[in-house]
Amino acid sequence: MPVAVFCHAPEDGSIARELAHQVSTTTAFACERHILDDGETLLDCYDRGADATILLTSPHSVPARPDRAQWQPVLDYDAAIAAFEAAPAAIPGTLRHKKLVTSDVRRLRQWLLSLIALEPRLAGVPRDFPIDDPDDYERVLYVDAAGRSLHGIAGDLAWRLNLDLPHNLERNLAALRSHCARHSYLVIVAGAEAPLDLGPLTTVVNPPSQTPAENPEDLLRAPADHAALAAIERTFRASGHPVLGQRAVTLATQLGRLAEAYEFLCLLRANASLAPWIERESAWITDFWDGKVHVPTSNPLTEGTQLTLGF
């Protein structure tokens, strides 16, 4: 089991305990804590020999002045180190370019999950797809965009990168760009209708793709996973069949890909018999985006009007 060590001042103990609890209950990491002794700072304890080290920065745990020379060993240390901002403190700006610095628990969790991600460095790339110099990139990601929208492309990239992006398309794209701006990726978006900008360090290429739609009846029995959602979207857009659209909404919602779920709902609005369900599902998604506590309690494939397959 991988180990994450939280280094912190005694004054930040409650925050450290809460972080350690959240990490240990939502990831595969076992959590340990190192409490600074009198006169000790985070610069004295960053090398803990753990799989991941999280430094809780605050005025109680870092020097009063952001002296880069003091921080240089941390900047140069080739290990999984992140800084969690327990309170505003004097840290050098270079730290943000070299290591993860965040006050967002979810972002910290995403970083930890990325350390143990099961995805290979070549993610989703077909075996026979030619790649020049793949070792020039941190990771190579492949998305088949044929017959799909930007919502689905963004959802697939978030999945491949272990990013939790349940927001609208604009926020999801901004988060993707922010993440990719710190990494050197090769992103292959095959069959995309328009180029995708993911920042200066990430290279995006758009080779052609003509992946066809599949048999809708087969897709209704497909596994409930991210790969199936791509095929369902492509075929729903080609066929327009409401049952497949309902399946797309349900699966996208289950996978936390709400921008796609909302887009599918918009595409289904021409079906008058689904109007009450569409309004209800659309409402809770927009409420969620607005920060309201509103969780769906119904299963859209077992409630309301059921349509007969007519393929």
Separate helix tally: 11
Shape: elongated
Q: pLDDT under 50 segments (min length 5)?
A: 294-311
Seen as an oligomer or otherwise, the chain set is single chain
Structural class: alpha/beta
What portion of the residues fall into strands of 2 or more residues?
5-15%
Rounded mean pLDDT is 85
> Main sheet: which strands, in order across?
2-1-3-4-5
Radius of gyration: 23 Å
- Provide the helix percentage: 25-40%
* Strands, count: 9
From the N-terminal CA to the C-terminal CA, the straight-line distance is 49 Å
Main beta-sheet annotation = 5 strands, parallel
Order of helices and strands: EHEEHEHEHEEHHEEHHHHH
Describe this structure in words.
The chain is built from 11 helices and 9 strands. The chain has helices spanning 13-26, 68-76, 93-98, 105-115, 150-160, 169-180, 216-220, 226-239, 242-254, 258-267, 275-289; strands spanning 3-8, 30-35, 52-57, 81-85, 100-102, 122-123, 139-144, 185-190, 203-205. Helix 1 (13-26) links the parallel strand 1 (3-8) and strand 2 (30-35). It is elongated and about 70 Å long. The termini are far apart.
Q: How does the SSE layout of this entry go?
A:
Elements: E1 3-8, H1 13-26, E2 30-35, E3 52-57, H2 68-76, E4 81-85, H3 93-98, E5 100-102, H4 105-115, E6 122-123, E7 139-144, H5 150-160, H6 169-180, E8 185-190, E9 203-205, H7 216-220, H8 226-239, H9 242-254, H10 258-267, H11 275-289
Parallel strand pairs: 1-2, 1-3, 3-4, 4-5, 6-7, 7-8, 8-9
Helix pairs in contact: 5-6, 8-9, 9-10, 10-11
